[in-house]
Amino acid sequence: MVVDVHQIKDRVAQQSESLHRLSMELSKTIVGQKQMLSRLLIGLLTEGHILLEGVPGLAKTTAIKSLAQALNTKFHRIQFTPDLLPADLIGTMIYVPSEAEFRTRKGPIFANFILADEINRAPSKVQSALLEAMQERQVTIGDHTHLLPGLFLVMATQNPIEQEGTYPLPEAQVDRFMLKVKISYPQAEEEKQILDMALNDSARPIKPVLQPEDVKAMQDVVKLIYIDDQVKQYIVNLVRSTREPAAFGMKDLQPLVEYGGSPRAAIYLGLGGRANAFLQGRGYVTPQDVKDVAYDVLRHRIILTYEAEAEQLTSEEVIKTILNTVPVP
Q1: Are both 135 and 234 inside the same structural domain?
Q2: C-alpha distances in Å from residue 40, one per residue of 52, 232, 272
Q3: Is the pTM of this model over 0.85?
Q4: What residues make up the domain containing 288?
Q5: Where are the beta strands (DSSP E) in the chain?
Q6: Same domain for 166 and 261?
Q7: pLDDT tens digit sequence for 275-306
Q8: Which one of 103, 170, 302, 312 is separated from 228 by 20 to 30 angstroms, measured CA to CA?
């Protein structure tokens, strides 16, 4: 099969105007946080869900709410608490006495963009209800199955500091998230700009600049972006090296890694690489595109041993070693 990279690049260039308008609109309310915004766009372009880890006050809610407004879509913020029930999330059947029948009352999960705030504060049965909706993109209430909107993105948050009274997500459920993004504090200049906007009330309201069908058009182009076989093999090698470091010349890591990435990690590295290439205006994926998303795709998929924890080794350090060791095509 012959792939015309130039033709794909032309398609990417056509859609770049839509992406530029979206980015400009989001900049009205969000200062800095380029990493979070780019990952949010990657999730949007690849239909992948995002797990954000950061202290409160770093514009996580503002970011996804602004994205929903700019795309003229429906947004719901769900505060996860220990007393939350699955029915509070997905909905339930209610009896209507006047009609002598049960009616379906849909829950807040039926929106285009969902912010699951502090997901680790709700018990596992609620987490499972959300993650089932994420994976299957449908919800069963009573005897009926209801499809979720075609454009559906979940951004869940975790507070890395306050862990008392939380229910940490099991590894199998964390794996459902395409990206795990760690959010840091803004730079000094950015923080002053945030302060000025708040004190002067100068943040401009977000206006719809795109429609869901525009997002679908961008997603269709991302699916066309070319990935060479050598880059695919590089992705496979990266993921396999998280499971068998010794086979790739990293014997010291072997006793420190209990579990590595699954085939889902390879899929998400490929999808993330395509979306990153799209953001850069290219019609093909380079190894650097894969490297750029590697930390966010792999950090929650590498499970370390007790020995690694005793040595205070982190998954980020393992990923850094892997990226520096595995040969780049």
Answers
A1: no
A2: 10, 24, 11
A3: yes
A4: 225-325
A5: 50-53, 75-79, 91-96, 101-106, 113-117, 138-141, 144-147, 153-158, 179-182, 257-259, 303-304
A6: no
A7: 999 999 888 999 999 999 999 999 989 888 88
A8: 302
